[in-house]
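// run 5 | inverse folding | seed 20
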């Protein structure tokens, strides 16, 4: 076996890549990088009826989005290809014949209906349901006679009988299994398609796989595969069978508790780094006091032996917190780049992404601390792009509870005509005219259209406090109707950030519209 560590992820393209599969891929990727080895991607597409190109494309896209780039496999090649099992059938046929010659496999002539009837009878009498090995015990004459009638039988592996197999699992530790608990499993179907356990053994040997990290549901498959490696005279890789991902109730994670497909999280607006980070923690811990880490930091610390032995619970709230934490740590330019598809889908004018990026960065600077996923942004910023707004019930109450509020708004609008506000964004019906120069930063002075220094949000707040004092109105009472008029609601980011971002034309129009 190669001295270079080689690990693989081998999905079946029968559905999208889900959280459990992504964690398996991630741990194999991290182990390969930590050990200075290679990470392979192998596609187990022998289930012809259920395998689809759409599923394959989803798996490749999800792995790439997570940054789990493979060293060998589809699209990258390698000296141990092909990397699709459907293209390796001659190899399985050859090794199947070899196992028959060694007496470690035998042809099985039972039909699926006969096997189903056999298992039903066993279940009815309370016996263990397993193949009864009737074809294993045929004489050579009987076997030849049946081959004449059925020239393409299945091939079954001849398990050693009543043998205790002792294995060291890198996650589970020392484990013993008696082969009496297992039956003679099908290796090859009559059409030449291999089944999972046999194809894994042949491919793991041919591809020089040294370690296999996968879910604990494959543990008994691991025992079968170890015995098959032994029958072929090949060394088996080291196995690590990792616990399931659980829901809050301690049961296997269900679709009701999580968007199980990885790309659903992308479409919901989770940053890829946050998804990578959170999935990594579903069974492995970076340290006792740090949950957020980079890929490089994980690789530096990752050891297969450190994967926990107990199932890890999926916590959607923690996942959302982590997503928001990643967004808060990013540069505004990166937030804008990654959020762009969500903004466009959410109805934000695409022209703003190109002609008014500086202004849009100002908007995101106000919202960066307030969102957990990118898809929350459009609803929180859409009011900035509307020519007119409707007041919600809470905003109307704020406007109506002060008898003089509408007079304050008219007076404030007249006052703002003398304040060096920046221009407004062109709006949904206006073209994104690059001649409209919106400020680069809302915290730095810029020239307004009048040629005077443009007021910053801090300037606008100081000015509003002085204006309210001149009116003889408490500042707290003054700002509530102003916010209602400008935003149509009682929530949102800073009022004077809002005023700055709305700009002269929109601010005056909204104040006067609310004043009536």
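// decoded
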């Amino acid at each position: 076996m190669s001295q270079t560590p080689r690990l693989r992820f081998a999905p079946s393209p029968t559905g999208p890549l889900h959280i459990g599969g992504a964690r398996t891929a991630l741990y194999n990727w991290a182990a390969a990088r930590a050990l200075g080895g290679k990470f392979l991607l192998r596609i187990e597409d022998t289930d012809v009826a259920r395998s689809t190109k759409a599923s394959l494309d989803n798996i490749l896209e999800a792995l790439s989005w997570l940054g789990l780039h493979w060293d060998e496999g589809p699209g990258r090649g390698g000296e141990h290809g092909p990397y699709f099992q459907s293209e390796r059938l001659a190899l399985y046929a050859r090794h199947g014949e070899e196992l028959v010659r060694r007496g470690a496999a035998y042809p099985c002539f039972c039909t699926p209906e006969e096997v189903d009837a056999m298992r039903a009878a066993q279940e009815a009498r309370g016996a263990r349901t397993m193949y009864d090995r009737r074809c294993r015990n045929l004489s050579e004459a009987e076997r030849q006679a049946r081959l004449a009638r059925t020239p393409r039988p299945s091939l079954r592996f001849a398990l050693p009988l009543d043998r205790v197999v002792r294995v060291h699992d890198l996650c589970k530790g020392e484990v013993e299994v008696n082969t009496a608990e297992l039956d003679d499993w099908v290796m090859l179907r009559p059409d030449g398609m291999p089944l999972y356990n046999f194809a894994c053994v042949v491919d793991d040997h041919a591809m020089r796989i040294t370690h296999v990290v996968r879910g604990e549901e494959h543990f008994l498959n691991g025992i079968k595969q170890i015995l098959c490696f032994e029958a072929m005279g090949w060394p088996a890789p080291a196995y690590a069978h990792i616990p399931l991902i659980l829901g809050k109730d301690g049961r296997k994670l269900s679709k009701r508790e999580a968007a199980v497909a990885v790309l659903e999280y992308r479409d919901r607006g989770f940053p890829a780094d946050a998804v990578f980070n959170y999935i990594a923690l579903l069974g492995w811990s970076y340290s006792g006091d740090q949950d957020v880490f980079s890929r490089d930091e994980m690789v530096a610390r990752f050891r297969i032996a450190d994967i926990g032995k107990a199932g890890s619970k999926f916590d959607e709230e923690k996942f959302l917190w982590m997503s928001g934490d990643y967004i808060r740590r990013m540069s505004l330019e990166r937030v804008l780049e990654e959020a762009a598809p969500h903004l466009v889908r959410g109805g934000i004018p695409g022209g703003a992404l190109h002609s008014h990026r500086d202004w849009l960065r100002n908007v995101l600077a106000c919202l960066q601390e307030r969102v957990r996923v990118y898809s929350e942004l459009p609803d929180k910023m859409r009011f900035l792009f509307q020519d007119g707004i409707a007041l919600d019930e809470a905003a109307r109450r704020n406007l109506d509870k002060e008898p003089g509020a509408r007079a304050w708004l008219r007076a404030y609008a007249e006052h703002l005509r003398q304040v060096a506000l920046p221009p407004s964004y062109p709006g949904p019906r206006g073209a994104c005219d690059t001649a409209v120069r919106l400020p680069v930063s809302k915290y730095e002075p810029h020239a307004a259209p009048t040629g005077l220094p443009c007021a910053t949000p801090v300037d606008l707040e100081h000015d509003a406090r002085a204006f309210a004092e001149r009116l003889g109105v408490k500042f707290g009472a003054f700002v509530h109707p102003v916010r209602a008029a400008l935003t149509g609601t009682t929530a949102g980011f800073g009022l004077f950030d809002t005023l700055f971002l709305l700009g002269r034309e929109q601010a005056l129009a909204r104040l006067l519209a609310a004043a009536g």
